[in-house]
Structure prediction request, 380 residues.
Amino acid sequence: MDMFTAIKERRSCRNFLPEPVSDEIIEKILEAAIWAPSPANNQPWEFIVITNGDIKKKIHEESTACKKTLFEKSGWKWIDRYQMGFLVEAPVIIAVIGDSEKTGAHKFLPGTEGTYQHGCAAAIQNMLLSAHAMGLGSLWFTLFEKDAVRKTLNLDPAKDPVALVCLGKAGTASPPPPRKDAKEKTTFMR
Amino acid sequence: MDMFTAIKERRSCRNFLPEPVSDEIIEKILEAAIWAPSPANNQPWEFIVITNGDIKKKIHEESTACKKTLFEKSGWKWIDRYQMGFLVEAPVIIAVIGDSEKTGAHKFLPGTEGTYQHGCAAAIQNMLLSAHAMGLGSLWFTLFEKDAVRKTLNLDPAKDPVALVCLGKAGTASPPPPRKDAKEKTTFMR
Prediction:
């Protein structure tokens, strides 16, 4: 698939069909992930491919509890209405884990200690684009308590669950959410 | 260009030719940027397109001072050797600015306040891929003091200079840096 087409057509999918995703496709998605750039090429990512139904259920329960707390704190109605069935319905969730000790030179630069997450985010974007190019829907999900996910996935405290990437054949398509034009977001220093 | 080809062939370029980059190409790169996903679609990015030589020079001076501090703190020889002429040589630098107030629900979720940066990082990855697809080299640069860049670019304290993206026709190509295979980075929970 053409790169610009993939970038423009990729949508966040919250509605997955049960059809399993082959290991071959998962490998291609992870191969795309590891070609992302990272600070000083320290590749601060790891991937946990979750197809186990009990683990997905546990993640769903924890995110539902997290959602409740978020609604109580914010009062935002969209949070209360937000349905997260995709966490059990998606045939695969890939947890993208950042290594918070792979900070490189940023550990000496105050306020930039989290820069390893940028590499993980670039890897995730590659994953979403390649999933779309292979006909899969995807969702970059971050509404969870990091410590709860650490416990479920048996991670050391230094390992940072940056995101859960849900993957699978998409059900009904949703329209692209509105975006501000690049021109409105850009200034020039000529 | 095919998406997987763009993902695999993109390199970090530190060696730019002086040939200017057209506004049309810059617009296409920024159009790719804004199609990135972001938490709750809050599009936490802004772009400052810098072609002004004095600003580039100032950024180079500040990053050189930052590099000196980093070398003193770390003692790492690669930092001392790291040449940053690309900051003045690149015909364009696009500063990608994150809005730290666009946290959405993450502001209520301790330790995730920086999640707006993930959206910016996804936008940057789209920029690098589209630059490569149009025959340009690029560099995702983060070795700078955020406050120094804020001052140079006249930014409010809440605006976060996530990265400086250097763009231009590449000089000599560098070989791909080694990467750990995805298999070494992956575990399965089946």
Remarks:
- Chain B touches chain A through 80 residues (CB under 8 Å).
- Helices of chain B lie at 3-9, 23-34, 53-74, 77-81, 86-89, 116-133, 146-153.
- Chain B has one domain: 3-7+14-171.
- The mean pLDDT of chain B is 96.
